[in-house]
Amino acid sequence: MTAISTFCPGCGQPAILRVMHGILKEKKVEEKAVLGLDIGCSLLAWDYLPINTFQTHHGRVVATMVGYKKAKPDSVSIAYAGDGGAYAIGFQSLLWAAIRDEPVTVIVNNNAVYAMTGGQTAPTTMIGQKTSTSPAGSDQMPVNGPELIRNLNKDAYIARTTMTDMKELKGHLEKAFEAQAQGHFSLVEVLSFCPTNWKVMGAELRAYVERMQETFPLGTF
Ligand SMILES: Cc1ncc(C[n+]2csc(CCOP(=O)(O)OP(=O)(O)O)c2C)c(N)n1
Ligand code: SF4
Ligand SMILES: [Mg+2]
Q1: Less CB within 10 Å around the terminal CB: N or C of the chain?
Q2: How far apart are the C-alpha atoms of 146 and 15, rounded to whole Å?
Q3: DSSP code, position 172
Q4: Shortest CA distance to 41 belongs to which of 66, 5, 89?
Q5: Residue 184 pLDDT greater than 80, yes or no
Q6: Tell me: the pLDDT tens digits for 92-130?
Q7: What is the CA radius of gyration of the chain?
Q8: Among 5, 11, 39, 83, which residue has the most ligand 2 atoms within 8 Å of its CB, making it the best to mutate?
């Protein structure tokens, strides 16, 4: 374990991970928790927190953590993925975990790009958003994961929040872990800064996330 962050300065992911870790500590389930990591910048969490982590292939974190939960039903099984890992390459296994109401908690870090590989257009890239593969602005309809999954499972806890509001983020993650404890699927999508690929800094980061909320409304679904 090391507390040294390898995330870029200003990245949203350390804040999400720290809030999540705080809840596990408060509930004294740190030792029972396993954080499964997708490929993408989420993998930089592998040694960020003093909890066990599990590195999976790209798009396979939900399936892996479903399997882990089946093997260890007393565990707190967490799948941490980017928007690309969750809603593109891993979409099929995510949808089936939701349909089957698998008792795992999925946290999706939505930065609206494929960050680790250079900021390409992702399933969550917004109409008009400029990326390295859509320099004139994307014309592709984005995927609204929580809204879609809500229609597949009425018992799951499904929410979208933002790392700019730690209190809300904490509340949603707490409810997601409670849903898992009660035997239900849960997913919290978190709108999150990626200064490196958005090419913005400081106050502009918050403004970017506010614009994201026009496409990705916050709340419980
Ligand atoms: C099977 C496979 N396809 C493609 C890649 C290349 N790849 C690695 S990370 C990544 C993008 C990840 O984007 P996202 O899931 O949104 O996470 P982020 O980096 O934005 O946090 C891609 C395409 C890979 N590692 N494996
Ligand atoms: S590229 Fe973006 S998401 Fe990845 S660590 Fe840097 S700021 Fe964070
Ligand atoms: Mg991403």
Answers
A1: N
A2: 21
A3: H
A4: 5
A5: yes
A6: 999 999 999 999 999 999 999 999 999 999 999 999 999
A7: 16
A8: 11
Tens digits of residue pLDDT in 29-71: 999 999 999 999 999 999 999 999 999 999 999 999 999 999 9
7 lines ligand 2 (CB under 6 A): yes
Closest Cα partner for 98 from 124, 47, 62?
62
- The verdict on the CB of residue 13 being under 6 Å from ligand 2 is yes
Our answer on whether the CB atom of 116 is closer than 6 Å to any ligand 1 atom is yes
Q: In what order do the strands lie in the sheet with 76-82?
A: 52-55, 33-37, 76-82, 105-110, 186-191, 157-162, 219-220
81 lines ligand 2 (CB under 6 A): no
Question: Is residue 2 over pLDDT 60?
Answer: no
Fold of 13-220: Rossmann fold (3.40.50)
User: What separation in angstroms does the CA of 105 have from each of 27, 32, 129, 159, 191?
Assistant: 15, 14, 29, 11, 17
